[in-house]
Structure formats: C-alpha cells, structure tokens
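Researcher: Quick sanity check before group meeting.
Model: Go ahead. Protein one:
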Amino acid sequence: MDFFHHNKTFLLSQFFIFCMIVVVSCRGPVYKPPEVEKLTDHFSRLSVNQGYNVFFGGANVRMTNNGSSADLILDKSSGSGLISKEKYYYGFFNAALKLPAHFTSGVVIAFYMSNSDVFPHNHDEIDFELLGHDKRRDWVLQTNLYGNGSVHTGREEKFYLWFDPTLDFHDYTILWNNHHIVFLVDNVPIREVVHNTAISSVYPSKPMSVIATIWDGSEWATHGGKYPVNYQYAPFVTSMKEVELEGCVRQQNTSATSTCFRRSTSSLDPVDGEEFMKLSQQQMTGLDWVRRKHMFYSYCQDTNRYKVLPPECTSN
C-alpha cells in the first residue's frame, strides 16, 4: 500500500510539473526589466476625450469613466479608431493600453503617428502595431517608420513582450525629436532610431496626428495571414486611458512648424530638452536587455528581403 501511495504521489507531482511546463510554454516566460527613468511621469496625463476625436467606426468607440478612458471595438461590422485633435511636430506621445484576451489571430491594435491625410504621396509615419496570436501564443509587438513616402522600404522590428498585455494597462510611448525617435514600453526603450546622415532622407519630418485603432489585419498580421480573424470570439475590445500628448502643436491654417506652441507649461521640453536628446546609461541598459531577450526580427538582419541593406543598417 505504501508503494502504491508513493507511486501515486510521484505521478501526481510529475503531472503537476508537466502542467506547469505547458502553461509556461503557452503563455511565454515573464521577465522583469531593468529599472529605468519614468519619462511618463514628467508630463500630464489627459482624459481620452480631451485629446482625441473619433477617427472611424464611431459605433464601436465607447467612451468610459466620463471620457477619461475609451474602449475600441472590432466586430464583424467594423473596427474603430481615435485621432488626436491636434497635429504635432516633434514631442512625447503615450497611451496606456489593455489588449483583448483569448484567441486574437488577425487582430491589429495600432498606436501610431501619421500625416497620410495631408501628404498622401509623401507621408511620414511612426508605428506601434500589436499583432494578435493563434491558440495561446504571445502577442507580437511590431515597430515601423516611414519618412517622406518611403513605404517601399519596411523598417520593421518585432518583439515578444515580457508581460501579459491582456491582464492590465501598459504604457506605449513614442518620443520624436530632431535627435532621435525612441519607442518605449512601460518607459523601457525597445528601439532607437538616431537621426543621422544615413537615414536623414527618410526621417519623419512633417507634423503628424496621433492615432489609436483596432482593425482586421487577417491578410498579414498573424503568421503572414495564415490565421485570419475568427469572429466567433468577437467582439475584440482594447481599452485606452492616461494619454499624453506633449509637443509642438501645429497652429491652424498653417503647416509652418516655426509657429507651433506648447500645450503644457512644463519646463521639460521633449523637443529640445537635454534629457531627451540621447538615452541615459540606465535607458541604454534597458534597450540592450529588450533587444537581446525579446527582439526576434529586425529588417537590418533580413538579407533575404534586402540584397543591399538600407544605409542606416551599416552606418554604425
């Protein structure tokens, strides 16, 4: 009887370990990033309705908490989106997002800047794109940018996140000035694009709107379109709050950037402030950690796609 009890206990323990392995492998490992400066603490958080208007899919945009937050919904009828009330030339732009859980293949959630409405053939763009997953695999975070209509050269980099983005809100931030573009997640830099001679011709250079959307990317988003959106799991809801829109606001009736003004009276200027001209040592440590542990694709390493890599890939 003792022998049977011992073997039963052993088998149960092994089964428990197996279950834990399955859960971890499905959800992916969770890591704690290095400590970094919290740049988001330097600027005021706005209610969503203070900074944004409905962009499209109005019936699928739901303001919550008296407009301080919003839900963006994708269902069979439509996706949805918000667009900033102002256009900005340089600045610091943030949104706290919580993503839909469960089966989200083909779903794309984007937080980005663009001026394609004003410059359809010569537009600039700076993108965060969160790509849904099949089964229980991780969300993928993709970053990209275009300048002066350079859409034929994709500058994508892809990452796995170090947390479950469906359980709570996390900050996604774009810092854009004349010195560099920095993509940050929870204040940790994940990518820096330095404004140098090699990339100057395609560096975003014109005022842009800030946009948040959820939409159907079945044709490409999940494993190259292998897994389309399954609307049996709809509606897909992403929640947004605590937005930050700090930068040069383009004055109405002019495209001249010299007339821009600051919305905030903060003494820290994300356009010219010394703190925002280059990454600190602490931020560089965070950037290196993300890129070593969590980045799994960079266009600068894709020699199948580019027989001659874009110039900025070989300029350092």
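Researcher: Fine. The other one?
Model: Protein two, sequence then structure:
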Amino acid sequence: MFAHTNPERLKLLNHNEEQRNLKPGQCNKFLHVVIDPAFLKEPHGALVLSKLSELGCKYELAAQPCASTITFYRCLPMKLTTGGTVSEKRADEPFAVHLIDGATFVTYVRNHQLLAVIRGIKEQLPKRRLSLLVFGLLAWCRVHRGCVGRRETEHALTEVQLHEDVSYQLLETDEQVANFVCHFARGIAERPYKQQQMEKHSHDQVYFGNEKKGCVRVEGTAGLQQLYQAQLIKIPAVTLEIAEAIMSVHPSMKSLLEAFRNAGPNEAPNVLAGVSIRRAGGPITTSNRRIGPELSRKIYLMYASTNSKQEL
C-alpha cells in the first residue's frame, strides 16, 4: 500500500517550485511573446526571433487586434493540487509594444493624426500599457529632407506621452529593435520576482538586509558592527584604515555620538582629529598618521549637522 500524500508537504513542494520558477533566468521560459506577423518584416524580423530564442522565451506568431504589435502572457507549469487535480495558470501581462515605420510616422505627424491613432490602438488593446517604437525615422528624413520638422515631431510625441501615458523609443537599426524587444521581455519575465523582493525588503525587520554583494544584513544585534564600519566608509575620504581607527576609540555609533555631544559645539568638530591610524593593520607606533581636523570636522557634520543642505 502506498502512503497517502501529506497535503502540507505537497503545499511546501509547490511553493518551493514556484519560488524557483520566479528567479531570473528560470522565469524566462514561462513567458510567451505573441508577435503579429507584420512586426517581423525585414530587416529586423529574423533578429527579433533569434534574440528571443537566446533569452529562452517562447514566442508565437498570431494576428493581433492591431497590426505590428507584440503582447505577452505568462504560463506557469502544471502542478498537482491537494485534491489530486492538475492546475495550470495563465495570465496576460498588461503590456504591449507597437511598431510604426518612419514613413508612416511622418504621415501621422504631418496630418496631426498621431494622438488619434494611438488612442485607437489602445482601445483595441484594453488593460495594456503601450510602448511605441518608431523605426527608421532619421533614415527616412535624410532621404526626404523637409518632410517634417523636429519641433513638430517632439510636440506630437509629447502629446502621446501626456494624454495617453505611452512611452516611445526612436530606433534606427534592426539590432536596436531586437534588443529592445529582448530587454522588454526579460523585464516582464522578472517582474514578479522583483516585486516580491521589494515587498520582502520593505519590511522593518530586514530594512538593512539585502541579497546583493556588499550589503550588510542585520538580525538583532548581529551585524551592527559591520554596518557601523560600512557607514563610516561611505563618508568621502574615509578609508577602511580610518574607519578601523575610529572604531578602536568609539566601538559603536552610540559611543561616537555621545563623544560629539559631550565635547560641546566648539570642541566637537575636533573630537577625532588626534586619533592615530594604523597603516595596513600594523601597530600604532609605526605611523604618526592621524585623522586630522579637516576630516574630523566632516565626520562630525555628517552625523551632527541639522542643516539638510550641509555640504561636506
């Protein structure tokens, strides 16, 4: 007889799998890029597909409500539920990319139609934030000089940004188009992971924690010494040797601040001036280097100044 599956264990396994699938690199294979065939016309079409394949995203060719448009959806792998059924999640991503060639764009701008055209595209793509790609505008204008003015073009694009909340990119080469689509797809694929990380590190208990190299994780009192040292090093002209010298006299931030307060406003800027600095971890007697009054004053201002515009 086979033992019954533990529902809690199954739930934990599903959770761990979902977390793995969210991570950068792993999440790309669950993103589907739906490309309208008109978007893939030469010279950039083949390169777009090649870049997406390198990224690991799945793509499919399908007519979109608006020609020359790309949309996205995420499809997570099937998993077994506690009831013994298989579930699959598919979710449309609220983003779309629309491409306009330089000649068509110039026509829209000269006829004052760009804003109306973009509104029409957004109506056909509800609940999606639109990004506009203008391909080959400079090349077209070089051949057809005087076809449209720079001020007129900028005015039309600004209207689109302000009234329809549409971002735009002016691209001139097939490489630029392919790279934009690839970077855009990767950003969408990694969006759930980045949102999760932002929520995780916005909590008060892990405010100083991070998974990036060079950051200091603080749990209770563990890590406070390293955080103190890291703060000192961030001050201009404070090296690791200087930070260690300060910490040898004032082992905590509280000790340093109390020294500033006890010295009074006149003497406080010079509290650290006479602190000796070890050179490369050697004994103090081998060096006469001291922090000095100027750097001492800067450190004092860093921690004690109440002027928000104070310059160090």
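Researcher: One line on it for the slide.
Model: The radius of gyration is 29 Å.
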